[in-house]
Amino acid sequence: MSSDVAGIYARESEYLDRFVQVGIAQGRVISVSFPETPDEGAEDEHELLDRVGAYLQGSEETFENVQVALTVPTDQRQVLESVREIPYGRDSSVAQLTRMTPGLDDESDADLRSVQEALAENPAPVFIPDHRVRDGPGTTPRAVADKLRSVEGI
Q1: Which of 27, 33, 109, 149 has its CA 20 to 30 A from that of 47?
Q2: DSSP SS3 for 66
């Protein structure tokens, strides 16, 4: 993806029964949402929308090479980077994700809360697959998360 690519891109997904909308700045994903109607002026042609479409049709896509601009505190960034390590077709619990994140302890209520807060602030669902954290408060709407889990067989 070119570093000068910027804008809002959206494409309707019949499978999700809504749009997939991606915000990009300096060639990096800054936001992902699932609106019923896209933002005015959103363009519908972008390679990431093609890749998401293939993923929704069952193509095993990891999105590991998609650059996401994480403008969140460092502790949240570490959690969200750990979410990206959960393999396609697998899921995790908040406790497991806490153990996966360097410096966090799943025996600590504060660390468990930190993980939940990071999930709740995820700016780029699908590319940071919070739908794979089965008991977390991700930003992917529940109906969409259920469909994403179904695509991956989880």
Answers
A1: 149
A2: coil
| Tokens linked to 54 | 């293939």
99 by Cβ neighbours in 10 Å (0-12 / 13-18 / 19+) ranks as middle
Supply the pLDDT for residue 6.
87
Q: In Å, how far from its chain's centre is CA 147?
A: 14
| Domain at 74-152, CATH from 3.40.50.720, 1.10.10.10, 3.10.180.10, 1.10.287.3510 | 1.10.10.10
**Quick check: helix, strand or coil at residue 68?**
strand
- What is residue 115's three-state secondary structure? helix
Q: What is the mean pLDDT of each successive set of 10 residues along the chain, which is 154 residues long?
A: 75 97 95 97 96 96 94 92 97 98 96 97 97 95 96 96
- Return the bridge partners of 68, or none: 29
Amino acid at 126: V
Residues shown for the chain? 154
- Largest alpha-carbon pair distance within the chain? 47
